[in-house]
Amino acid sequence: MISMALLHKKPEYMQKCCELINTEWKRSDTARMRSLENSCDSLPCNIILLQDKVLIGHLKLSSIPSIPEACFVESVVILKSHRGMGYGTKIMNLAEEYCRDCLKLREIYLSTKGQEQFYRKLGYVECPPVSIYGCPINTFRDLSPPPGTKIIAME
Ligand code: ACO
C-alpha cells in the first residue's frame, strides 16, 4: 500500500529519510538531520512516500518570503530501485493536494537542472526566475481552483 506522511509526524523515518536524500545530494548527516527536524504542518514541510511502511520517496516544501501564496519544492527524490514506476508523479500529486487543500497555496515553484521533462509531464511550465534567498528558481505550477487546474504559461 502506498501512503504519504508528514515527516515530523513519523519521526521513526527521520534517519532513513536522511540517508535517501544523501544518496543524491551528499551533506553531513548532522546538517541534514537538523534541516529535517524543522519540518512542520505549514512550511517548511517534509513529505515522505511509504510503500508498505518502507520509505521510498521524499520532497520538501519551503516558503518563498516574497510570495506568501506560493511555496517551492525541493529535494524531490525516489529510491533508486523504485524509479520509473510512477512514484515520483505520485508524491508530487500528493504534495500538490496538500499545498492546495491544507496550506491554501495557489502556486508551486521549483528549480531543476536535468529533470525538466519529468516536471513538464506534471504540468509545470517555465517562468522567469524568482529570487529566493538569492537563488533564482524558474519553473512553476498554478494550483488554482479545481475543477481543472489551470496552467499559466509565462514568457
Ligand atoms: N527525463 C525524462 N523523463 C523522465 C525523467 C527524466 N529524467 N524522469 C522521469 N521521467 C518521466 C517518466 O518516464 C514518466 O513518463 P511516462 O509518464 O510517459 O511514463 C514520467 O516522467 C513520470 O515518471 P515517474 O515514474 O513518476 O518518476 P520517478 O518515480 O522515476 O521519479 C524523479 C522521478 C523524482 C526525478 C526520480 O528520477 C529521482 O529521484 N531522481 C533523482 C533525484 C532528482 O534528480 N530529483 C529531482 C531534483 S529537482 C527538485 O527537487 C525540484
Short summary:
This protein has 155 residues and is of the alpha+beta class. The protein has four helices and seven strands; from the N terminus they run E-H-H-E-E-E-H-E-H-E-E.
Assess the beta-strand content as a share of residues: 25-35%
Uncertain spans: 147-155
- Amino- and carboxy-terminal Cα gap: 41 Å
Describe the main β-sheet briefly: 7 strands, mixed
CA gyration radius, whole angstroms: 15 Å
Determine the number of helices (DSSP H or I, runs of at least 4 residues): 4
Q: Structural class from helices and strands?
A: alpha+beta
Number of strands: 7
- Topology order in helix (H) and strand (E) letters: EHHEEEHEHEE
The shape, in one word, is globular
- CATH class designation: Alpha Beta
Structural domains: how many:
1
Question: From the 3D coordinates, which CATH architecture would you assign?
Answer: 3-Layer(aba) Sandwich
Average residue pLDDT? 89
Bound molecules: acetyl coenzyme *A
Indicate the CATH topology.
Aminopeptidase
The largest sheet has its strands arranged as 1-2-3-4-5-7-6
What can you see in these coordinates?
It contains four helices and seven strands; from the N terminus they run E-H-H-E-E-E-H-E-H-E-E. The longest helix has 16 residues. Helix 1 crosses helix 2. The chain is of the alpha+beta class and 155 residues long. 26% of the residues lie in helices and 33% in strands. The protein has a seven-stranded mixed β-sheet, with helices on both faces. The protein has one domain: Gcn5-related N-acetyltransferase (GNAT) (Aminopeptidase, 3-Layer(aba) Sandwich). Bound molecules: acetyl coenzyme *A. Acetyl coenzyme *A binds next to strand 4, helix 3 and helix 4.
